[in-house]
Write a structure and sequence with these properties.
By secondary structure, the protein is mostly helical. It has ten helices and no strands. It is globular and about 45 Å long.
């Protein structure tokens, strides 16, 4: 059953977003996740048969905060698996989240890194149906729900399909209520806040040791 938040639950959650968003959004690693490439890839992946290996490699590197760098080692094997199986995937492709999730989960297995890779591919290929998310964003959602005394609305990471659908419903129900708080680019800011809130233990330590880098302005993708 899909998540359905009552007005009272939304009110509690929005109050928490208002309390926490400035601090945690400011700690989001903007330099690692520039938005311009993502917007281009969303358009390109609408036709997965046209995606070349270099584009696929760049997008996957972005998803783990290593755009234009070598993939982080725990992700490297997963990314190579995606690239090597892309042609076969395209030949069978059905533009629906259940197919995308099932195909890549069967190949990549379970665990946080596989979860993040599958969730990212599902968003790129089905962005109208599934929001951008990963394990840290789902944790941010769960932590907000727990703080709002709504633990029964939390979701486990083990099932990618359930988690990304649950997050999408949560995000899309909360977004209209947070527009006045987040202002311009609220849709981008809410996602980044949830990521940073779920990753706050790490990001708070990073903030203590080094200043956050601004988001780069990108005009041409390599």
């Amino acid at each position: 059953m899909s998540l359905q938040l009552t007005d009272a639950k939304k009110k509690s959650l929005v109050a928490l977003v208002k309390t926490h968003h400035e601090l945690h959004h400011s700690r989001f690693p903007f330099a690692k996740y520039p938005v311009e490439p993502l917007e281009v890839w969303r358009q390109q992946f609408a036709d997965p048969a046209t995606i070349e290996a270099d584009t696929l490699r760049a997008a996957l590197s972005w998803s783990c905060g290593k755009w234009q760098q070598s993939s982080h080692y725990p992700y490297k094997k997963l990314h190579l698996t995606v690239i090597s199986h892309w042609k076969n995937f395209v030949e069978q492709y059905i533009p629906e989240p259940p197919f995308v999730i099932s195909y890549w989960t069967d190949l990549l297995g379970k665990g946080e890194y596989a979860f993040n890779t599958v969730a990212f591919l599902t968003h790129l290929l089905c962005s109208e149906q599934i929001e951008l998310t990963d394990s840290r964003s789902v944790k941010g959602m769960n932590d907000l729900l727990t703080e709002a005394e709504l633990p029964d609305e939390c979701v486990e990471l083990e099932d990618v399909a359930i988690s990304v659908e649950h997050y999408t419903h949560f995000y899309r129900q909360l977004l209209p209520k947070t527009q006045s708080i987040l202002g311009d680019q609220a849709s981008l800011k809410l996602g980044r806040f949830l990521f940073a809130y779920g990753y706050r233990d790490v990001l708070s330590k990073v903030a203590e040791s080094s200043p956050n880098q601004p988001e780069p302005i990108i005009t041409v993708l390599d």
